[in-house]
Amino acid sequence: MSLRRLKTLVAVADHGSITAAAEVLFLSVPAVSAHITDLEADYRCELLDRRRKPARLNEAGRSLALRAREIIQQYDRLHEAVLDQPDISGVLTLGASVTVLTNVIPPALQTLMRTHPRLQIQMQYARPGTLLEQLSHGEIDAAVIGQPRGYVSNVKWTKFAREPILVIAPPHARGKTDETLLREFPYIRYGKQFWVSHEIEEHLTRRRIALRPSMVVESREAIEVMVRHGLGVSIVPQSDPTIARFYGLRIVPLGKPPMMRDVGLAERISGPKERLIAALFETLKTTARQGRAQRATSRTKTSAGKN
After folding, report:
1. Element (H, E) at 65
2. What's the rounded Cα separation, in Å, for the pair 281 and 263?
3. CATH number of the domain to which 11 belongs
4. In DSSP terms, which residues pair with 267 in a beta bridge?
5. Which residues, in sequence order, are bridge partners of residue 122?
6. Suppose 175 and one of 63, 110, 180, 199 were both cysteines; which one would form an S-S bond, judging by CB atoms 3.0 to 4.6 Å apart?
7. Is 204 exposed, middle or buried (0-12, 13-18, 19+ CB in 10 A)?
8. Which ranges in 138-247 belong to alpha helices (H)?
9. Which run of H or of E encompasses 75?
10. Strand 187-190 relative to strand 155-169: parallel, antiparallel, unpaired?
11. Spans in the chain with pLDDT lower than 50
């Protein structure tokens, strides 16, 4: 019996079929089938109901997958089993939404890995709903996302930062306020798969701001390029303000007081890598706080220079 085969079995249990598990594990379908066949030989029983199309785990397969998950979690805890060691080691699989704090995550990981050089990070970017699903299935260890829009079983989310929501407009825009900018140009919005797009729509509805929708774009970077070329105006989380400034975009907070969104770290409740995730959380929180302080200092200097 190998740990790799057990991980394959758990993937089949989580995703419902050999084909789906193969896609997640980046293996061929025959390779996944071979892992299951080897486990059946080891335990001398069938683990799949092959009468169904596609084949699915039978009762014995589901029971073994449940035990296999426990074994995998115990194996993961071995990285944290050495007591009184200031250094942290192991592999941490971290997910992040493409809309969230792109100016915080890289320096935070740099600090974390400099402090704990034996730590390895595997990054995955996806939509927040996908990340929560991966987290609940144990495919990733933690995820940096906005506050979930509802209860998620076996997952906890802890806030470590807030970021403003901004209206961005072409450099030649004449409007002075968020509302005048939004009425001046066609509207480019985020895809509805991103939670922040729902929060933005709710805000606009409350203020009864009528827009002229022109296109839907899935990437913040792509939105900024479209806005730079005068194709429209958009509303985005701050994430990385240096990009918008590089393009010379007009930037105005959405609302008075400015609309904010909470950003936090999601993890499984009683997950196997609590020590690693706790270190990551503290580093993210510290990095976000330092970033806020630096921006406040920069604004103060800019204001003093104008006076």
Report:
1. helix 59-77
2. 12
3. 1.10.10.10
4. 142, 156
5. 93
6. 180
7. buried
8. 178-184, 195-207, 220-228, 241-246
9. helix 59-77
10. unpaired
11. 82-84, 299-304
Distance CA 209, CA 88 (A): 50
Contact at 8 Å (CB) between 249 and 171? yes
The helix/strand/coil state of 195 is helix
Residues 246 and 182 in one domain: yes
pLDDT tens, residue by residue, 4-36: 899 899 989 988 899 988 877 767 889 899 999
pLDDT at 147: 86
Instruction: Give the pLDDT confidence of 185-225 residue by residue, as tens digits.
Output: 999 988 776 778 888 889 999 999 989 989 988 778 888 89
Whether 38 and 176 map to the same domain: the answer is no
According to the 3-state scheme, what is the secondary structure of 103-143?
CCHHHHHHHHHHHCCCEEEEEEECCHHHHHHHHHCCCCCEE
Number of domains in the chain: 3
267 in the same domain as 143: yes
- Yes or no: say if 164 and 259 are a contact pair by the CB < 8 Å rule: yes
> What one-letter code names the amino acid at 80?
E
